[in-house]
Structure formats: structure tokens, C-alpha cells
Amino acid sequence: MLGKYFLGFLPTSVIYLASWMLVMLQFLCHVATRCPPPDFPEGGKYEPIEAEYAVGKLITYSCNDIVPMRGRNKTACLSSGKWSGNTPFCETPTNLKNPFISAVESSRIYTAIDGNISTCFQTRNDTEEFLVFSLDHEAIVDMGILCFGEGKATVKITVYEFWTDLLNVDIGMPIVRCFFISFKKYGATKSAIVQILSDSSPVFLCEVKFFSIDNKWCEEPPKNSFPNGQLEVGRSKAVLHCKEGFRVNDDTRVVATCQNNIWSYQSLFCVEEESQEDNSALDIVIAAVVITLILILFGLTIFLIRTERIRGICVICKPGNVNNCSASPNTGDPSTTDVCNIENSTV
């Protein structure tokens, strides 16, 4: 009678296979998990600028001009390949027109709304100045920025007839300092009044800006993402920018517009330009390397399985032929060999 074999699939082989596959998956996931360049606010920027970002990398947003930013100025790359938080907004100031001043030389006040922080309006000594600014349309004003140069004064800002904000200015050096002011929202207004009472020396008012809320704007940025592209996000529109080697499929790059706090999207996306042969070849090489690694790991796993099978052979001998039987290597006897000697038995 021939010997009987127990060629079981040992648990250690399963552990080997699972360990190698887990290491491979971790390697592939680590390589693949990167964040693309983030969306950014209209009139703003972010730093640092990189082609892609590792998980945990932080970027910082800032506005190009002296305007308030609504939203968080930092975001982080997540393990999902997406960015945490929403894209912030860099606000656009409301246009001011027909400035009026209580003094005789009213034309001087235009230097405070010309958008140039280096040109300033100088108040008179020991005199209370009333500066009235008209908005280009009726709006709900909720923020303001006043930039002052050297001087000391008490400033009152009246946006609504029954609401006044007080600001104490004391700048002892020839520098420009800007103050951000938030107003309570009581309703729409058409004008804003800045009342300046300077001390013994004049004060320099270099820039005045007011910011309003429009019900037609969107309070949140677009939620849609665009592969191989990033959005330049404003209150009323979002413009699609494609990364190098890609282009927008249409000449119109405005991918989304906002009306009544709702985003409407256009059928725009980034398409690959024709001159991308080098990138395609690189993708093929990477795929070949990955497949080769998987095959090597698979072959190594099969080898380990066969080794465990040979070491796990048990011999069952026919009674009467005990002298021809070797002890099983699994008995723990140190005198046994690694492989059982199997011989045919005769009747």
C-alpha cells in the first residue's frame, strides 16, 4: 500500500501572503495619495506653490490687496487626496462716489478713495472733519477699512443713522496702519460718514473702503472638483485654470456662476493636450514595474507555500513495516530529517 500524504495549506503560508500583499498595498497607497494644487480666491493667492502636495501639507491663503478675507486662511492635504475646509473669499470693496467734506477744499478727499495707499488726505489741526461717502448702490454694509498715516485722532464711523463705531487712532511714526471694522447689519444704506476729531497735530487718512453683502452672491464656494484643474473662486463666478499640459475644452473658462446663492455649472473640464507622449510612456513604465513587483511577490509566496508543504508531510506506514518508516518531522524529534522517507510496502 502506498503511503498517504497530508499536503495541507498551512496557516503560516497564509500569513506570508497577507503580509506581502499588505506591504505592497501600503506602498502603492503612499505613492498615490497626493493632493493636487488647491482652488484659490479671486484676487488672492496661496503659498507654497507646488505641483502636488504630500498628506498633511499646509498651505496659506492671502489677498493681493488690503481687503478682508472671509473663511479660513489655511487648509491641509488629507489622506483622501482632497483639501480640508472651503476656499476663502477675498472681498471686493463697494465703489464710493461723490465724497463730501465739511472743509472748503473738498477735492482733497479724493486721495482717500483713489486706491493708492501712499496718497493721503490731511486733516486740519484741532478741527472736526465730516467726510461723507456715497455708495454706488444701496447695499448692506458689514465691514470697513480705514488706513491712517502719522497722527492722533478720535474717529467715528456712521454707516446707519443710528449706529456709530468709535476708533482711536494714535500713530507716532510716519507709517500707514489699517484698521478693519465690522458693522452690525441693520439694513441697506446709501452712504457712510467718517467723523475725524484730531488733536493738536493733523492726522493723515490714506484709504477708505467699505464692503457690502449682496443677496445675489454665494456664501459658500463651489463644491464640484475638476481633475487636472483648479478654480479661481469669487462671489459671483468661478474660473477654471488647467495645469500644464492640459487646456479647457472651451474658450469660455467661467465654469460656474452664482445667482441667488445657488451655483450653476457649465460643461467645462480640462482635456489633455496632444503633446503628451512622454507622459504616456512614463505611465506604461510605472505600470510595468508595479506588475513585475506583484509577480515577484506572488512567486515568492508560492515558493514559501511549497516549502511548508514539504516540511509538513506525514507518513502512514502499513503495519509490519515499522523499520522502513521515518519519524514525522512535526514530532519535534531533533534526530529526524527535514523530509520523510516514503517507501512502498508489499503485501
UniProtKB/TrEMBL annotation:
Keywords: Disulfide bond, Membrane, Repeat, Signal, Sushi, Transmembrane, Transmembrane helix. Pfam families: Sushi (PF00084). PROSITE patterns: SUSHI (PS50923). The chain crosses the membrane at residues 7-28, 284-305. InterPro entries: SEZ6_CSMD_C4BPB_Regulators (IPR051277), Sushi/SCR/CCP_sf (IPR035976), Sushi_SCR_CCP_dom (IPR000436). Disulfide bonds join C63-C90. SMART domains: CCP. Residues 33-92 form the Sushi domain. This is Sushi domain-containing protein. It comes from Larinioides sclopetarius.
